[in-house]
# Entry
Amino acid sequence: MQARVSEYGGLSIKERLLVRFIKSRNIVGKNWRGALAESDPFFNTKLGGDYLTSVAQAVSDSSRGNVDRIERVTIALEKVAGITPVPIV
# Structure
């Protein structure tokens, strides 16, 4: 992910969520999608699968992906990874 600097000199909320997502994904491993689907039935649905795809695309292009979707996936993946989620703000 290419991190852009926001107007205030730091990462945007979306970019911070993506950093957290990448960290969690690295802990869970290559089967992170399967692990999420197993731990949360939402991600075993068409809509849940769309969320996962959206976030995966946002990692390579941070202009893509809805911040709410990224947040939902990141928090769920942090739980699977054993990371205590922290406030987004």
Q: What stands out?
A: Confidence is low (pLDDT under 50) at residues 1-6. Helices lie at 13-28, 32-39, 46-60, 67-81.
